[in-house]
Specification:
211 residues, alpha+beta, 2 domains, 15-stranded antiparallel sheet, 15 strands
């Protein structure tokens, strides 16, 4: 076989292998606070959530069967300094039951934004659900577990304008809603490995031609 044919064949093999490597799609579903459940700003910059369970899944494969609980760390999550946006510290827990099995994960809100009457936790949409555990078969919850990471953003709306200083001062509660999106699974370096094999093959054939 000619060198050019060998090189072409090796690149075609790499291209075919890369085509077979398809990244997993992220799953996304919504939730809202259960009747009577609220996000509570406690004073001293702390906040937590009332009632257990305190939210219901409202979209996706778990809708109508799953409820969940957001549990704050001891002392609550803490809002840092800032006028309209701020960092949030503390790691709590989130649990979502499919009726038989329960998904659990560590939950860190990371950031908060308060503009006018509306507020958002994790407004930068960073990874904030980690150490996920689940033993059930619900499609959305299983995808979240398999991806081993989630992005949870939560919003709340007041009837009048509030500032972050108002939230830090406390004495405010409201209902809430949110969206959970799984972290996309990378290909584990397979793309780099395949490209490396292709380059090695081409290099090998080039050396043979020069020798």
């Amino acid at each position: 076989m000619k060198l050019s044919s060998l090189k072409s064949a090796s690149w075609l093999m790499v291209a075919a292998a890369l085509a077979a490597v398809t990244p997993a799609k992220a799953v996304s579903f919504n939730y809202s606070s259960s009747t009577g459940a609220t996000i509570n700003f406690l004073g001293g910059g702390a906040f937590d959530f009332s009632a257990i369970p305190n939210f219901d899944v409202t979209s996706g494969s778990a809708v109508g069967t799953a409820n969940g609980s957001i549990t704050a760390p001891v002392g609550g999550w803490i809002i840092g300094p800032g006028a309209m946006t701020a960092a949030v510290t503390g790691v709590g827990l989130i649990a979502i039951s499919d009726g038989t099995f329960t998904l659990t994960a560590d939950l860190a809100w990371n950031s908060i934004s308060q503009v006018g009457a509306g507020g958002t936790l994790n407004y930068l949409a960073s990874l904030n659900m980690t150490n996920i555990s689940y033993g059930g078969t619900n499609a959305d919850l299983l995808a979240l577990y398999n991806d081993q990471g989630g992005i949870n953003t939560l919003t709340f709306q007041f009837s009048s304008v509030k500032t972050l200083d108002d939230l830090r001062a406390g004495g405010i509660s409201n209902s809430f809603s949110g969206t959970i999106t799984s972290q996309r699974v990378a290909d584990g370096g397979m793309t780099a490995v395949l490209l490396g094999l292709g380059l090695v093959s081409v290099g090998f054939f080039a050396r043979r031609r020069l020798s």
